């Protein structure tokens, strides 16, 4: 169009200066047709292979479609498996947010919630688990996890064989205690703080050492409560207010501490009734 206008007159040229440029004109040449015309000038014919090797049997009949990748997935990553049958996606969705127990490894016997099922082509499924004790999110192989309801059934059967064990009186998950048994594991943990990671049932608990060591065979009598610095978070582990959370204020006497509960009220407690939170 512009080529039909003399060079000296092009500065004054506008679309409206061509009397034959009506809406009808543009409707007769849609964008799709414009692109098709460009391709045909480059040798493209509908239904014929494309590319410089169009005569070979391996030539493409259809263009390569763009497949988007997930967050942080770079070149060379194996794409997620496609769902093999109708309803598989719904099944995967229903597997989320289940209570589970970890069977082996660093987090053995710890409880968590299944947040996501990660499927990767050519590999076993992996679960994204949020631990109930501290909210940490971990990835773990599916065969290392079991639904909590099945684990509890197994535990209840084994527990009936060992009624001689004493029930836990004050241990609860999420607190920091100090090992007072000098002979436990040759004194390796004596007088050191450990974190109660999980309480499996009314008889047993597991803990983590300062370097992440899994501790499973301690008894309640082997540990004692610890206190935080002033202003630190605590849990009431004995008495009328058992289970209440609060803030450590100060030591009043040798065996008495002052705690401000979450409702804002101040109370005095025996030192052995209050324990530091993780």
Automatic annotation (TrEMBL):
GO terms for molecular function: nucleic acid binding. Keywords: Nucleus. GO terms for cellular component: nucleus. Signal peptide: none annotated. InterPro entries: G_patch_dom, Spp2-like, Spp2/MOS2_G-patch. Residues 1-26 are annotated as: Disordered. GO terms for biological process: mRNA splicing, via spliceosome. It is found in: Nucleus. Residues 31-80 form the G-patch domain. PANTHER family: G PATCH AND KOW-CONTAINING, G-PATCH DOMAIN AND KOW MOTIFS-CONTAINING PROTEIN. This is G-patch domain-containing protein. It comes from Paramecium tetraurelia.
